């Protein structure tokens, strides 16, 4: 196979989610750089992969990086894997990717499972714009400060969280976002005890507090962005809307004005109804 660094997405729970290409690459590379070799061993044994492995993580020193670069310099190939999912998504690796690229070697992506995207796809929250925040700070004050900075964000927010901190994080979210802000708990995705629960933050916090099983495993928290304030309907738009409504059905009039102004059709329709009901 071509020499280079292969960034390989692996299963986040169900081994059936491994792509055939990922399995072939792990079989054929010269070396596998794993976040935790002991953790990855179960996956490798399942697919009868006996490729040599080495540890590469946030605390690896330059010797580990140089071993990988030397393998590439000798014409070999290296696969980078994390404990689960897509490497570099809140996992170590970007320094390695930069070093390999700067040394003149190729880096190949092998797309596949990612807990953040899998959770977003079934969340029921808006998916057109989202912000991945990874893990929140462990300390209360730092966590609340980070959430306060995100409170006005209109995009869907995605967080990873450790089981022993999920209750504290939900409580901090209630304090900074409000108890009624819609959110999703996605836990143990693709695994036996998979849980997907959507509701107001206060309801999710109670759900997690009352069931200790919800404080176990791999957890993704998603929070709806802050709703945008509707632009006010000024006097000229209101006058135009009323005039059109004398010639057209209310819904049609609202739709025409929405196309011309960019205002929401429902907002304009509700405004018309309010005008008709006014004394």
Q: CATH topology of the largest domain, what is it called?
A: Cobalt-precorrin-4 Transmethylase, domain 1
Q: Measure the end-to-end span.
A: 79 Å
Count of individual helical segments = 11
Give the overall form: elongated
Largest sheet: 5 strands, parallel
Total E-strand runs? 10
Top CATH class of the largest domain: Alpha Beta
Total number of distinct structural domains: 3
Question: How does this structure look, described?
Answer:
The strands form two sheets. A five-stranded parallel sheet has the order 3-2-4-1-5, with helices on both faces. Strands 6-7-10-8-9 form a five-stranded mixed sheet. It has three domains: 4-113, 3-Layer(aba) Sandwich (Cobalt-precorrin-4 Transmethylase, domain 1); 116-223, Tetrapyrrole methylase, C-terminal domain (Methyltransferase, Cobalt-precorrin-4 Transmethylase, Domain 2, 2-Layer Sandwich); 235-277. Helices cover 42% and strands 18% of the residues. It is built from eleven helices and ten strands.
């Amino acid at each position: 196979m071509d020499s280079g660094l292969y960034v390989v997405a692996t299963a986040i729970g169900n081994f059936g989610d491994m792509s055939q290409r990922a399995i072939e690459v792990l079989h054929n590379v010269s070396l596998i750089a794993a976040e935790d070799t002991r953790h990855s061993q179960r996956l490798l044994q399942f697919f009868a992969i006996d490729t040599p492995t080495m540890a590469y993580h946030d605390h690896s020193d330059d010797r580990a990086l140089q071993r990988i670069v030397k393998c590439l310099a000798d014409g070999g190939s290296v696969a980078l894997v994390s404990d689960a999912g897509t490497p570099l998504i809140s996992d170590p690796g970007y320094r390695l990717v930069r070093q390999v690229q700067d040394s003149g070697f190729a880096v190949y992506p092998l797309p596949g499972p990612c807990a953040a995207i899998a959770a977003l796809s079934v969340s029921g929250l808006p998916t057109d714009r989202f912000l991945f925040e990874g893990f929140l700070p462990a300390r209360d004050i730092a966590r609340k400060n980070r959430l306060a900075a995100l409170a006005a964000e209109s995009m869907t927010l995605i967080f990873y969280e450790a089981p022993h901190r999920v209750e504290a994080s939900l409580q901090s979210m209630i304090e900074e976002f409000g108890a009624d802000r819609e959110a999703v708990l996605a836990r143990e995705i693709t695994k036996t005890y998979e849980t997907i629960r959507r509701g107001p933050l206060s309801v999710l916090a109670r759900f997690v507090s009352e069931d200790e099983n919800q404080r176990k495993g791999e957890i993704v928290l998603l929070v709806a962005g802050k709703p945008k304030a509707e632009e006010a309907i000024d006097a000229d738009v209101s006058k135009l809307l009323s005039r059109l409504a004398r010639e057209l059905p209310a819904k049609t009039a609202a739709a025409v004005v929405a196309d011309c102004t960019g205002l929401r059709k429902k907002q304009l329709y509700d405004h018309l109804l309010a005008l008709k009901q006014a004394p």
